[in-house]
Amino acid sequence: MEKRKSEISEVKTDAVRTSFQCVDAIEISLCIEKEGLLFYESAGKKVQDPQVRDMFSRLAGEEREHIQTLQEKARFLQPAIASRNRPKEYLQRFLGEELKGKIFPALTVSFVQNIQSDKQALELGIESEKRSIDVLQELLGKEKKLDVKVIFSHLLVEEKKHLFLLEDLKKQL
């Protein structure tokens, strides 16, 4: 009986750790979008083909718009969450261990200089969008809160659009 209580307690603790608040979902989404923006801006400066450059510019613009929308949502929620004293350790650990540099390649000057071709840049974008989709689908599968699911679902739709655009362009080249 004591062992069973311990197991239930562990399950409840894990559920609490894997469940995010609405504002956490926004922070996670912002992290993904900011890395996407940095990737598309940096790689866009390196590519030669005008079609690829235009696509990266378009995607960077969309990432900028998404960031602005998410920041507005966070500002809207701020009064509602200001009174809550929420620990952010789990969110910060998740961002650091699961997201930063894991979806879009860690962008350094040497990384961007090592992009050898427009095709390689496109493939990096495609693989990054796929990783983003995988992460978001995993988060959606674990999440119970509808408001959090809505945020992740919206971003998932956007990432799938980006993937389609990149794959379509790759076929054309």
Write structural notes for this entry.
The protein is mainly alpha-helical and 173 residues long. It has a single domain (21-172), classed as Ferritin, core subunit, four-helix bundle (Ferritin), CATH 1.20.1260. It has seven helices and no strands. Helix 2 (22-46) packs antiparallel against helix 3, helix 3 runs antiparallel to helix 7 (146-172) and helix 6 (118-142) runs antiparallel to helix 7 (146-172). The longest helix has 33 residues, at 50-82. 26% of the residues are buried.
Structure characteristics:
single chain; mainly alpha; Ferritin; disordered N terminus
Layout: helices, strands, pairs:
Blueprint: H1 2-18, H2 22-46, H3 50-82, H4 89-99, H5 109-113, H6 118-142, H7 146-172
Topology-level CATH name: Ferritin
Give the distance, in angstroms, between the N- and C-terminal Cα atoms: 64 Å
Shape: elongated
* Contiguous helical run count: 7
Low-pLDDT ranges: 1-17
Structural Rg: 18 Å
Q: Helix proportion of residues, in percent? A: over 70%
**How many independent structural domains?**
1
What is the gist of this entry?
The protein has 173 residues and is mainly α.
